Amino acid sequence: RKVRPLTPQFSGRIAPENIIASSPKKDISFLNDCKALGLQTTHDNTEVAHKSDVVFLAVKPPHVSKVTSEIAPILSREQLVVSIALGITIRNIESLLPSKSRVVRVMPNTPAVVRAGASAFAMGSACRDGDADIVRDLLSTVGFAVEVPEVHIDPVTGLSGSGPSYMFAVIEGLADGGVKVGLPRELAIKLAAHTLLGAAKMVLETGKLQECSGDFNGKRTNGTLME
């Protein structure tokens, strides 16, 4: 099946021209996509560090040391460093940056690309009052954001970080069932996706996890379910 590419949705909170993205020359297609969205682009990580109040480390774990070694001489305590590098602890990043650097560790997830993400973040020891509000404000433009102790970041990775993949499998399974009983696949996928969306919205708006055999406001909600 062909997969339609996703287009990131801007929240409007920060103007695209006030965002700068850096990537190696071999990833020119990524930077071209950024340019098309109105972002500044560069191949020079130090340029990002020079121009930014908040620096996001959005690199794979093996590249963290190289990137931090490039930007460390430029960073000051007035800048906030936000890492979404998988599995790299705050202490590890702090050890690669100047003393008392303000470091935040984030575990986002892929639905952020459609502004429906779920992100957890942990604050480093040198962070200042108000830094958590800055990070929460930025992350909330692409979904739900919550501050947690760093010890919770790894469990969050397994839950909401990896969770979308399991939900995609659930949608596919429901859709396959619909196709087997005669539904067109496109319709089956839409119904399955909206079913998960609706169930999630019920949980969030009522504060109750609706189980198959549970009650809702004192009334049975089994509907067409089999007991």
TrEMBL record:
Chain ranges of the Pyrroline-5-carboxylate reductase dimerisation domain: 150-207
InterPro entries found in the cross-reference section: 6-PGluconate_DH-like_C_sf, NAD(P)-bd_dom_sf, P5C_Rdtase_cat_N, P5CR_dimer, Pyrroline-COOH_reductase
Binding site for NADP(+): S23, A58, V59, K60, P61
Keyword terms, alphabetized: Amino-acid biosynthesis, Cytoplasm, NADP, Proline biosynthesis
GO biological process, alphabetically ordered: L-proline biosynthetic process
Domain Pyrroline-5-carboxylate reductase catalytic N-terminal residues, every copy: 16-86
Molecular function per GO: pyrroline-5-carboxylate reductase activity
Keyword match ATP-binding: no
Pathway: Amino-acid biosynthesis; L-proline biosynthesis; L-proline from L-glutamate 5-semialdehyde: step 1/1
Enzyme's top EC category: oxidoreductase
Binding site for NADPH: N45
This enzyme's EC code(s): 1.5.1.2
Family recorded in the similarity comment: Belongs to the pyrroline-5-carboxylate reductase family.
PANTHER family, per database record: PYRROLINE-5-CARBOXYLATE REDUCTASE
UniProt protein name: pyrroline-5-carboxylate reductase
